[in-house]
Task: structure prediction
Amino acid sequence: MKVMSQIAMVMNLDKCIGCHTCSVTCKQAWTNRSGVEYVWFNNVETRPGQGYPRRYEDQQRWKGGWELNKRGKLKLKQGGRLKRLAEIFSNPVLPDIKDYYEPWTYDYHKLTNAPLGDDFPVAEPRSLISGKPMKIEWSSNWDDNLGGAPEHGDLDPMVAKVREQAAEKVKFAFEQTFMFYLPRICEHCINPACVASCPSGAMYKRAEDGIVLVDQDSCRGWRQCVTGCPYKKVYFNHRTGKAEKCTLCYPRLEVGLPTVCSETCVGRLRYLGVILYDADQVTRAASAPRETDLYEEQLGIFLDPEDPEVRAAAERDGIPYDWIEAARRSPVHALISKYKVALPLHPEYRTMPMVWYIPPLSPVVDALNETGHDGEEADNLFGAIDTLRIPLEYLAEIFTAGDMRPVRASLEKLAAMRSHMREINLGGTPDGSTAERVGMSAYEIEEMYRLLAVAKYEDRYVIPTAAVGNAQALEESVLPEGCSLDFEGGPGMGGSGPVGEASGRPAPVAVENFHVLADRATADEPADTGRSRVNLLNWDGNGRPEGLFPDREERQ
Amino acid sequence: MTTLLWGILPYVILVLLIGGLIWRYRYDKFGWTTRSSQLYESKLLRWASPAFHYGILFVLAGHVMGLLIPESWTDKLGVNEHAYHLMSLIGGTAAGVLTVAGIVLLIYRRRTTGPVFLATTRNDKLMYLVLLAAIVLGMVAKLTHASGEGYNYRHTISPWLRSIFTLQPKTELMVGVPVLYQIHVVVGLALIALVPFSRLVHMFSAPLQYLFRPYIVYRSRDTERLTARPERRGWERIGQ
Result:
């Protein structure tokens, strides 16, 4: 047994209202730069729907993740090492910008500078890729709230799978349809296919907390990771020529703060905590012959931090004491291993994802309420979970490779929790029979309720800091041995290096932000001119920075 | 002029190449990338890029064979001059045609695809010019002197190049070389000098280590990167 620790996330889909606050704050924090205009480390998809990038779940086409070869060994679906190197000059299965969406901005200047006339001035959309006027046809959540579902609904790869198996059809008439929101970030997998497909060895999994990162100094832009990731959560920055991905906000986690997406989540549906797992079992578990076993196999490699043997082994393997203690209090461990209500996203990709989801019960409750039944009465709910087969099958395709039993069990626990708590709220004393039906005690149900419904901040996020000894040094702003501007080449940081945009040594993040903010706060002139290309997402509409639009002569 | 071109220039180029690579590695690891434009356009790239890259790899192999392996070695293997000439002519032309077709397509794509052209820097344009010139001049030199036994550069250019590495440049060997070959050599040297300072630098990061490393890479948290720089040396002034 080799114990490793990982910071994992669970999202409670029942509480997601699809407001996209997580996406927007994440974008503001991480990808509001040129080169990653089209990139959303966090995006929220409406399901059924195509997702972002379009149809990313269709691995026949995109070749993401792992598969078993004839001898039952794991191999990358996109091909072995030699094949990867042979195809390095042009990756045959790389999504192009149209599969994500062509990012755009608006020609805001026309609104304020248009001459007086009879017509309202209009800010035309302009492509951030080509700089030309464009027609907006797709974006990262174009099919939000089932928009266009009657036309595009069939394009959801999971709908196609359900239809293969079920005689009944998934209907897309708006009033008959069910839907839920699926916020997605990088899964920070235990068996990451992106890391395995990186030729340069620039991608790595951090030993201490399991966060999967790209070393920007070693990445050479071979683009294999984009294909390798079945969730399409590694992106190519087309300006710097390097791969970028969700960092699980490691600078925040290291000092004990939750990620930006969790912190700003309006529905308070995200949970962060430590999971201990047995690294020796990973390959065996990921190569389970049957895809439907992968969920159980992954559960099997997670270790119980209450077990004294596990704790001793963890200590032996160098896991800090406060991490072991955090694992005992981990809400993520409770939801995944104790209550077993959280399920992994697409375990069939064999990457062992570490962002899990509590499937939504709401479509079932809503459907019940619409028929005039009491949507929170236990018998009604249990019956409905079974009869409403389409949502169940669809959820199973997403969370358990098609096996409906774990999804049903999870939904039944949520249903039991609802009726148990309702009885308490109505002044009754539940006899615990509802809880027993789903194999839980009344106490456990109430504990789960505290975690899922009351969901206090300190219960949702149990994040041990980076080793206390490092903590002071890790805070960029409180550098122990001097001024934070005192890094090599600083503080006169400036613009592009001689060999292309953003070449040269990177400045510490805090310093870079400081300069950008100071620039914008004090400038009479357009921000950024002469220093680098203008980032249109940051552009304050002030002036006409060089390089923003093609030269006038060229346009004619 | 002979000394300047064939005795001094190669060493200047070597210093630029090695010094440039060290400089780039130390100060611009972040800029060291292929700067792929596949995200913008992939249909043309799908054919053009492998054609060019495989072509230029064959061309490189041909140059290594012709320039670095002495004639006496191939003689011992029983390859006579005629056989060698045919091999180099046919193999070289095939690789050359593949390379030229690839790069012409790539340049066409770069010029006509709006986003790709927008992402083209002045540095890139200079690089493409020199690269195309070196390839085309090499083809022209080879094919102009292809009749009969062809021009046997293995008596002149090859020994001269090897003499560079032994630090005793035999500049006199280059005097009688056809002028087309001379131009090709000079442009080729210019291209080598450009490597560390252009996107061509990605050739030095060919990821062969991928074949031998384990699939999953683990690394420990790097606290160095986030802390202040290490203690200064004692002799630096402290304070004002």
Summary: Residues 61 and 191 of chain B are 17 Å apart (CA to CA). Chain B touches chain A through 55 residues (CB under 8 Å). Chain B has a mean pLDDT of 88.
